[in-house]
Amino acid sequence: MKKVYIIFLSILFFLSLNAQQNSEKFYYYYKGEKIFIQQRKDKVFLKFAATIDRKNLNMLIGVDTSLQLTSHVSLDNNLFCYTVLETKDGMDISLATFEFYNTQEEVVSINPLFEYCKELNGITDEFIVKLKPTTSIEQLQALVEKNYCKLLEENRFVKNQFKISVSKMSHLNALQTSVLFYETDFFEFSEPNFVILDAFQSNDPYFNQQWSLKLPHLIMAPKLFCYQVNKRFFL
Fold first, then answer.
1. Has residue 154 got a pLDDT over 90?
2. DSSP the chain
3. What pLDDT sits at residue 197?
């Protein structure tokens, strides 16, 4: 029964991804306006579970010989947590590749990279919401459960601002789910957590003072410094 369920989820993911790739317009909401971003079909952004061991990690990265590793973030134990893979010939990454990685327990999320103002940005499984004064926690929890999400935590400095993760059981990614949540009119904002590549090119005047942001290769970019794409900051 479990095997059949996994196959069913894979089919849903495959159909959803096919619909995404046939559409040229991707967006999220910022201050009530749609912010459009361009999908890169030759690159994918993977988030791995922190518990993955090096043997399995190397196997998963090397499973598709048409892809090459171009960027990663190393943890203290030298494992990759976030990885960019791209095709060696510049062609589109196949739906079969997405489907394979999506079914692996060690892979938390796999999504295309997106481009905005010539900067590459990845998304993981997370997005941020801020409840309207008229929205109850019960309404948030019901929406979370209905859409195969998980309520992770409330911002300790901003009341009613929450971080949410999207389960692999959902046929939507964090970008799409943030749009779905916002369009319920329950939230002041609902925006994906972006990971910006090459954040050292940030035009924020105080970036050099933020020593803790200087991670190798990729950076989990606080949205304050990704402000051309997203301007929310979640601590």
1. yes
2. -HHHHHHHHHHHHHHHHHHHHT---EEEEETTEEEEEEEEEEEEEEEE-TT--HHHHHHHHTS-TTEEEEEEEE-TTS-EEEEEEEETTSPPPPHHHHHHHHT-TTEEEEEEEEEETTEEEEEEEEEEEEE-TT--HHHHHHHHHHTTEEEEEE-SSSTTEEEEEE-TTSSS-HHHHHHHHHTTT-EEEEEEEEEEE-GGG---TTGGG-GGG--SSEE---TTTTTTT------
3. 74
